[in-house]
Specification:
Elements (H helix, E strand, L loop, with lengths): L16 H6 L3 E5 L5 E4 L1 H7 L3 H4 L10 H15 L4 E9 L5 E12 L5 E10 L1 H19 L3 E6 L4 E4 L1 H7 L3 H4 L13 H12 L4 E9 L5 E12 L5 E10 L1 H29 L3 H16 L3 E9 L5 E8 L12 H11 L5 E3 L12 H11 L3 E8 L5 E9 L7 H62 L3 H31 L8 E4 H15 L4 E6 L5 E4 L1 H17 L6 E8 L3 E7 L7 H4 L10 H4 L8 H11 L4 E6 L3 E9 L7
Parallel strand pairs: 17-19
Antiparallel strand pairs: 1-2, 1-5, 3-4, 4-5, 6-7, 6-10, 8-9, 9-10, 11-12, 11-15, 13-14, 14-15, 16-18, 19-20, 20-22, 21-22
The structure holds adenosine-5'-diphosphate.
The site of adenosine-5'-diphosphate (ADP) has 20 residues, from helix 16 and helix 19.
């Protein structure tokens, strides 16, 4: 085709149309005025016109107006003997589309050198343009990607490197091209690359491989890799492309989420422990353990200043995870005094490096001690301040590495400290109440014991008097006095029993006896004193052998029958129902009196509990059922009540039967 520039043969000499038509490029000839003489099939393919449609027409109609001037000038130049080569311009196609072409225009002469016309040879640039644009687009995408995109040969040498790679790994394109990929791989992970390459060689893509790579300066970077084989146009694998996404932040976020989750779990446990716990020492230990875990400290200590029962200051402290040095020294007065100087302000103290801290100068002896004997670099001290703004103590955390505690941890601990302060306040109250209670129990025990002796001797004297007195009236008075004395006596005995139960000193004296016989005796005794109620016994057994404290069981039966009489003043009957099963005997004492409201049922066996509406006109201390329950349960029996308000109650208790006799 180049021959057209300097044609040696004339168009007239040969019919060249077949050559023209087989050409890949469009070939047209024009006369020197610009009229079309020849038009080949490639020209038809590119611009749509057939040869017939254009022959003899001036070329102008297929040149866009804005290019007409330049093209005319070019044409003149060619006619004058010049040429135009690979000139990019535009032609209008038959359907009026602009078609980009690359045009070469030359003068055609005959053998004698006479000018015959002008040839225009061109090809369609559109396809090439699209490919170029696509290429440019891809290049732009690669360049603007945040991910690192690089390629390497099958031997692992880096052949391309985008901006993203530069940002993630820190090397510029110039620095890295030609380097081996192992440059970016941590030593311990080098085998990963062999694995990847062997897959790539087999045409297998490696997707989302989460691993670690090394950036400039040895920085470790968590990356997610996708590696694909690169093929040449014949499909041979010639290298690999690698997309690396920096997932350091994701990993950090993941770790942060995990950390938050554990923190939450720990906080939850502390919350629970604190709200349930009422003993200062237990709270101190739980809080210390949990906050030590939360801060990641090597040791944590909790100081708590409190007062004992008689107002002396006592210092408790709990320690957790003492991994460095010894925290024993923390208990010493010297340390305490030094810490107090920090605590006084009630402010949190967070120190990144103990010797470089501005507070070092004011507390040098303490700081030196911490550093030297306990290897503390990071220190976090969080005061525990109670409602009245009193600093009662504090949490101290240490670590041998500097800058181990963050503001976040400081806040977490401050939150826990606030909770702990409230819990300690409660614990203090509870301990005070408990101490008072213990004192009261002790007093009741002592008082009833002291009352018992004079009561017994009074009873003795009255009985002698009763025997020796012959006057009817006096005897009646003495009888009345004795009855009242018995009442006091039994109240005092009950009080003494309560005190014994409280102090765990209610001792039982077990013997084997027949409960049925005991029931008969008790019923007879109570019946003797009751003029209002008839006590009926309904039993399905003849003998009921039990091993129990006979006196205490008698006390149980008397208590329940007395209550049944006492709380059914308008009734005339108390029914005792005895039922035996294989293993136990159940005794029910039923009355037809006031009954008990449902909401009161659960309190009925509590110490000092009385139903208020009855309390004003029926005397009692509210301890009979408490003692009864204790006695029954100490015999491995059960006690409960079924009652309907206004209709009456039935109290039940069970006792295990002796095995040999049971069944
Ligand atoms: P006390 O009878 O001295 O008050 P108890 O401990 O024996 O003390 O009884 C506690 C409370 O239970 C009584 O005050 C009374 O309100 C209620 N109670 C006990 N037994 C009966 C009963 N059989 N019927 C109705 N209420 C009863």
């Amino acid at each position: 085709m180049e021959d057209f520039n300097k044609p040696l043969i004339s168009l007239n000499d040969f019919d060249l149309s077949s050559i023209f038509n087989s050409a890949h490029d469009a070939v047209i000839t024009l006369d020197i005025n610009g009229h079309i003489i020849h038009w080949n099939s490639a020209a038809t393919r590119i611009l749509g016109y057939t040869a017939d449609e254009v022959t003899d027409r001036h070329i102008d109609f297929m040149i866009p107006k804005e290019l007409a001037f330049d093209e005319k000038a070019d044409f003149q130049r060619v006619v004058a003997g010049g040429s135009v080569e690979h000139y990019q311009t535009i032609r209008l196609s038959k359907n009026n589309q602009k078609v980009n072409i690359s045009l070469t225009a030359s003068l055609i002469r005959d053998a004698q050198g006479r000018v015959l016309g002008v040839s225009h040879i061109f090809h369609d640039l559109t396809v090439q343009k699209v490919a170029e644009e696509k290429q440019a687009m891809l290049a732009a995408i690669i360049e603007s990607s945040d991910d690192a995109i690089l390629s390497k040969t099958l031997d692992g040498f880096i052949t391309s490197w985008n901006k993203g790679a530069e940002l993630i790994f820190g090397y510029t394109e110039e620095e890295i091209i030609g380097e081996h990929i192992s440059f970016l791989i941590p030593k311990e992970r080098l085998s990963e690359e062999d694995n990847i390459i062997s897959k790539i060689k087999r045409g297998i893509k490696v997707e989302h491989l989460e691993t670690v790579r090394i950036g400039k300066g040895g920085r470790k970077i968590a990356v997610s890799l996708t590696i694909s084989p690169v093929k040449d146009k014949d499909g041979n694998i010639i290298g690999a492309s690698k997309i690396a996404r920096d997932i350091t932040k994701n990993k950090e976020a993941e770790r942060a989420i995990k950390r938050h989750a554990t923190d939450l779990a720990v906080l939850n446990t502390i919350g629970k422990a604190i709200s349930e716990g009422l003993e200062a020492e237990m709270i101190l230990q739980k809080v210390t353990d949990a906050t030590t875990q939360l801060t990641g400290a090597e040791f944590g200590t909790f100081y708590y200043n409190t007062k004992d029962g008689i107002g002396n200051a006592i210092q408790l402290f709990a320690t957790s995870a003492a991994a460095v040095g010894s925290v024993e020294g923390f208990g010493s007065a010297e340390f305490r005094a030094l810490f107090d100087s920090i605590f006084l302000g009630g402010k949190i103290v967070r120190i990144e490096e103990i010797r470089k801290d501005e507070r070092y100068l004011n507390h040098a002896p303490l700081f030196d001690l911490l550093k030297v004997s306990m290897q503390v670099s990071s220190l976090l001290v969080v005061p525990v301040t109670t409602k009245g703004n009193v600093v009662v103590g504090g949490l101290v955390f240490g670590h041998s590495r500097p800058a181990m505690f963050s503001r976040n941890q400081e806040n977490l601990v401050a939150g826990v400290a606030a909770q702990a302060a409230t819990a300690l306040d409660n614990a203090k109250l509870y301990e005070e109440v408990r101490a008072l209670n213990a004192k009261k129990d002790e007093f009741i025990g002592l008082a009833s014991h002291e009352l018992k002796t004079p009561l017994t001797s009074m009873k003795g004297f009255l009985q002698i008097l009763e025997r020796n007195e012959s006057g009817e009236l006096n005897r009646a008075f003495i009888k009345k006095a004795l009855k009242q004395l018995n009442k006091i006596s039994s109240l005092v005995s009950d009080l003494l029993d309560v005190s014994k139960i409280q102090s765990g000193k209610l001792y039982l004296d077990f013997e084997t006896f027949d409960l049925q016989t005991l029931l008969h005796e008790v019923i007879e005794l109570v019946q003797f004193t009751s003029e209002t109620h008839e006590i009926e016994l309904d039993s399905d057994s003849i003998v009921l052998p039990v091993q129990a404290d006979k006196q205490r069981i008698e006390q149980v039966i008397i208590n329940l029958i007395s209550n049944a009489i006492k709380y059914s003043p308008d009734a005339s009957k108390v029914l005792i129902r005895v039922r035996k099963t294989d293993l136990e005997v159940r005794v029910g004492i039923q009355d037809f009196g006031f009954g008990i409201e449902t909401e009161q049922l659960e309190n009925i066996f509590a110490r000092f509990f009385r139903v208020e509406s009855l309390a004003s006109h029926i005397s009692g201390l509210g301890i009979g059922l408490f003692i009864t329950k204790e006695i029954v349960e100490r015999h491995k029996g059960r006690i409960w009540v079924e009652s309907e308000h206004g209709k009456g109650s039935e109290f039940f208790f069970t006792l295990p039967l002796i095995r040999e006799f049971a069944g």
